[in-house]
Amino acid sequence: MGLSNATSWRGFVFLGFSSWGDLQRLLFATFLFLYLITLTSNVFIILVIRLDSHLHTPMYLFLSYLSFSETCYTLGIIPRMLSGLVMGDQAISYVGCATQMFFSAAWACTNCFLLTVMGFDRYVAICAPLHYVSRMHPTLCAQLVVTSFLSGYLFGLGMTLVIFRLPFCGSHEIQHFFCDTPPVLSLACGDTGLSELGILILSLLVLLISFSLLTISYAYILSAILRIPSAEGRKKAFSTCASHLTVVIVHYGCASFMYLRPKASYSLERDQLIAVTYTVVTPLLNPIVYSLRNRAVQTALKNAVQGRLLGKG
Question: Which CATH superfamily is domain 7-312 in?
Answer without folding.
Answer: Rhodopsin 7-helix transmembrane proteins (1.20.1070.10)
